[in-house]
Specification:
Blueprint: H1 3-13, H2 18-30, H3 32-50, H4 60-70, H5 83-107, H6 131-158
Helix pairs in contact: 1-3, 2-3
């Protein structure tokens, strides 16, 4: 859109300031080409003003929402991991580590010299297994068992 056409539209819409309005009125009166363009724009404005705007029907929103509700909901993509692949990779690494450890043990030449362990280890279990120790152990087992039973029953109740 050129500047004269833009000024004419602003003049028709009434958004032009006073000084620009007076200069444009003088140009319209003086130049017949601008006058014909102004008259054409006035006719176009009156035709556009006479048009009826199409409005959507009253149930348009409801119809759109119903058609959206009928569409199947998108399903999130879930990938299933093949456990055999995981076990194969893990097995490969375990075997590799065992092979390296075996190779290192077979190639190593270990000499301990004069290693003599003369200290006799005495281990008296009676001083550790007192009735109090046994009761604490049984109490801890009972608490752990109750926690396990609670989780088991909750899982069964949810299903």
């Amino acid at each position: 859109m050129n500047t004269i056409e833009q000024q004419l539209w602003e003049y028709i819409d009434g958004t032009l300031d006073d000084s620009a309005k007076k200069t444009l009125e003088a140009r319209i009166a003086a130049d017949p080409e601008i006058r014909t363009q102004y008259e054409d724009l006035l006719k176009l404005n009156s035709v556009l003003g006479a048009l009826d705007l199409d409005e959507p029907s009253m149930s348009f929103t409801r119809n759109v929402m119903e058609s959206v509700a009928l569409e199947p909901a998108p399903i999130a993509l879930k990938t299933k991991v093949n456990t055999r692949i995981i076990y194969a990779i893990g097995g490969f690494f375990v075997l590799s580590l065992l092979a390296i450890l075996t190779y290192v043990c077979l190639q190593a030449k270990i000499s301990l010299g004069d290693f003599n362990l003369t200290k006799k280890l005495e281990f008296n279990l009676d001083q550790y297994f007192t009735p109090t120790t046994l009761y604490v152990f049984l109490f801890a087992d009972l608490v752990i068992g109750l926690i396990f039973l609670d989780q088991f029953l909750r899982r069964k109740a949810h299903k």
